[in-house]
Amino acid sequence: SQQGEEDPQALSIQEGENATMNCSYKTSINNLQWYRQNSGRGLVHLILIRSNEREKHSGRLRVTLDTSKKSSSLLITASRAADTASYFCATAYQAGTALIFGKGTTLSVSS
Amino acid sequence: GAVVSQHPSRVICKSGTSVKIECRSLDFQATTMFWYRQFPKQSLMLMATSNEGSKATYEQGVEKDKFLINHASLTLSTLTVTSAHPEDSSFYICSASRDQETQYFGPGTRLLVL
């Protein structure tokens, strides 16, 4: 079953702008992960944030987690055309359990 | 990083035939692997959890007799789509967890049933 929702469903921006995607989930979690998927391809793991963490950075990525609101956000700063892809959040109820994916945000970055 | 492979990457078959998809963890052992399915322009949906040496656990609505899962070793899980039909056409992706946190996904198998 689908765990959460993401918004926006689609986002179009210019190169150099920041992109923010939000994810909400329904049940308690052990961790939340963000993945990128280029059209028709496999998933690329971006970042994992644990339930006891509030913010995490990795390069141009910044992820926040608010467990009280059951929500997370992914910020991509100084976006590039190569960032064009679909982005999914996924939650794990317990460590090592299957991931439940959100519906995803399709990001289009134009140069 | 950990590598998970899938074979074949794409397959086209006739309706009524069976198709086997392999998922291998190349540099680590995985007691548990997961199988997902993704229809066009949709998200990934968990199909089943594959446990080494025991029966797979299927999600609600997934027919276990149609999607046979075998996890015979710590590095290999197979998904067999039996008597495939056009509605089974999809992108099938497996994943494995090495450290109980990050899951590593295979590159996916695109199945087209004519």
Structure description:
The complex is a heterodimer of chains A (111) and B (114). With 111 residues, chain A is mainly beta. In chain A, a hairpin with a 5-residue loop joins β4 (31-37) and β5. Chain A is 0% helix and 56% strand. Chain A has strands at 5-7, 10-14, 19-24, 31-37, 43-50, 55-58, 61-66, 71-76, 85-92, 99-101, 105-110. Chain B has 114 residues and is mainly beta. Chain B is 0% helix and 54% strand. Chain B has no helices and eleven strands. Chain B has strands at 4-7, 10-13, 19-25, 32-38, 44-51, 57-58, 67-73, 76-81, 90-97, 103-105, 109-113. In chain B, the strands form two sheets. In chain B, strands 2, 4, 5, 6, 9, 10 and 11 form a seven-stranded mixed sheet that branches. In chain B, a hairpin with a 5-residue loop joins β9 and β10. Chain B is globular, with a radius of gyration of 13 Å. The termini of chain B are far apart. The interface between A and B is medium-sized, with 23 and 25 residues.
Structural class by SSE content of chain A:
mainly beta
- The coarse overall form of chain B would be globular
Mean pLDDT of chain A: 93
Largest sheet descriptor of chain A = 6 strands, mixed
Number of strands of chain B: 11
Strand content of chain A: over 45%
N/C terminus separation of chain B: 37 Å
Give the number of DSSP strands of chain A: 11
The N- to C-terminal Cα distance of chain A equals: 37 Å
**What is the mean pLDDT of chain B?**
92
The count of helical stretches of chain B stands at 0
Portion in strands of chain B = over 45%
Q: Any key phrases for this structure?
A:
heterodimer, A: 111 residues, mainly beta, 6-stranded mixed beta sheet, 5-stranded antiparallel beta sheet, 56% strand, B: 114 residues, 7-stranded mixed beta sheet, 4-stranded antiparallel beta sheet, 11 strands, globular
